[in-house]
Amino acid sequence: MNDTMRAVVLDGPGTVERLRLVERPVPEPPAGWVRIKVEAFGLNRSELHTRLGLADGVTFPRIPGIEATGTVDLDPDGVLTPGQQVAALMGGMGRTFDGGYAEYTVVPRSQVVPFRSDLPWEVVGAVPETLQTAYGSLTVGLDLRPGQSLLIRGGTSALGLVATTLAKETGATVLATTRSADRLKALADHGVDHPLVDDGAVAAQVRALFPEGVDAALELVGTPTLPDTLAATRVHGTVCFTGMLSNQWTVPDFYPIDYLPRGVRLSAYGGGAADLPAEVLQRHLDRVASGESSVGPTHVYALDEIRTAHDDLEHGRHVGKLVVRT
Fold this sequence. Notes:
Residues 14-324 form the Enoyl reductase (ER) domain. With 326 residues, the protein is of the alpha/beta class. It has helices spanning 45-52, 121-124, 128-141, 158-170, 184-189, 202-209, 226-231, 256-259, 278-290, 306-314; strands at residues 4-10, 19-25, 33-42, 67-74, 85-89, 104-108, 112-114, 149-153, 173-178, 194-197, 214-219, 233-241, 265-268, 298-302, 321-325.
């Protein structure tokens, strides 16, 4: 193995020009940590927030990346076997310690989820973080049940597409929004029952279909659309606040009685590696491999195209997940 690796380093908040591809020493894992040879990693809004200076607790310079997929290169404790396929995610990756935007990354073993798959790495790389967040949102955040109706606000995002997949597997009826009418077909092709154009007043469209409101709603856009999402939800229904595609996540001067429709429940979800059971990851990968499921559209970049990838992420140029293949 070489002594050096290629890595993307962010020296501080700013434009995509702040992302630099450099040579770094290959990191050594201390006890309790594992070195992973990174094959692919997905891009996430969290990393955009880090680059824009919107994320708390980040220290610079930093190799970004809250997830990575690849193979175990070294486990000094001998718990994991070299060559074993793994995903790593969350827990400070790319924020308080260096993350997945590199050819090798070192992470706590507690943040590693093993799997086995013959899928291409660029497909596997699209899965871990979005699957963890979608799975947790639908189970912990919404307690979604078969036969219920679910509104996904921000449906063409990678997270929205995975949430659609899992909700349909649960047996739910899915409504999902997009701001662009030319993306309605992409939602329908992915299995959405009722694709909707987000004109800022989605609640009226939802209640034309479900007069009492939907049973559950997944808010992925942020606080600007949250009141309308709440208004689309039935009494005793639940809205889970998970995503911030708008980069806005706080409600100023929050007065619950005025803000929340009577009887509508508001929850939130954020999780980590421990919230993605290995069997859930394995089952999803197996279903994708068999054609029973889909990760949705993926857009693949090389490591030296990281600035282009981040610019595409920031401006929402693609439907689905952006993945870098190292």
